[in-house]
Amino acid sequence: MTLGKRLFDILFAIALGILLLPVMALLALVILVRDGRPVFYLSERMQTPDRAFRLVKFRTMTENANDQGVSGGDKSNRITTTGAMLRRTRLDELPQLWNILKGDMSFVGPRPPLRLYVEEFPHTYSRVLRNRPGVTGLASLHFHEHEARLLATCQTAEETDRVYRRRCIPRKARLDMIYQRHKNICFDLLILIKTLASVLRKRGK
User: Fold this and answer.
1) pLDDT at site 205
2) Which residue of 95, 130, 151, 191 shows the fewest CB atoms closer than 10 Å?
């Protein structure tokens, strides 16, 4: 990561954190009152092929000690009413400002993968994770909604895992590699603006 990109991440994360602190406090209170504890969801993700970190999100599902893999239709009955709204507007990802400040993530980059997929596809992720993971990115921008539709039809954890491996990982990796070849601060700003526009459009609906 270049010094300029890291400096942008820190300054922008501080500014957004100050601006959105009341919003995050309100969301945390709503989750606490409506859904109980815990307010936050911690998930192990990979920053590099051999370095993990704890990703922070607002909790959007009921807890399950045996939970693993990506979320598909098999987990839809666990999504809370509050969580459905948070997922639709991506407000559940606001706590990742903390991950950015810590240096675990950047604002723009490939979405941080789960360890099991990094171990299953080492060649793919050795290339994808040359960039620090991001809250949003080219793959998130252009494939997120299609991925959600693909996985929403899955009725079992095995089917979700199979569809994600075969139909999502390769396509997301190709988009992440396109970003890697063309990355610069202007491209990052364009992705951030388009992501914000997409979120606002969903909130409008």
Assistant:
1) 59
2) 130
Instruction: Give the integer Cα–Cα distance in Å for 181 and 179.
Output: 5
pLDDT band, very low/low/confident/very high, at 168 (cuts 50, 70, 90): very high
Confidence of residue 204 (pLDDT cuts 50, 70, 90): low
Whether the CB-CB separation of 172 and 110 falls below 8 Å is answered with yes
CB contact set of 118 (below 8 Å; sequence gap of 6+) = 46, 49, 125, 129
- Residue (of 190, 135, 147) closest to 172 by Cα position: 147
> At how many degrees (to 10) do helices 3-35 and 81-89 cross?
160
Q: What is the pTM of this model?
A: 0.93
Two structure tokens written together for 69? 């893999």
Provide mean pLDDT across the span 14-21: 97
Q: Characterize 67-76 residue by residue with b for buried, 16 or more Cβ atoms within 10 angstroms of its Cβ, and e for exposed.
A: eebbbbbbbe
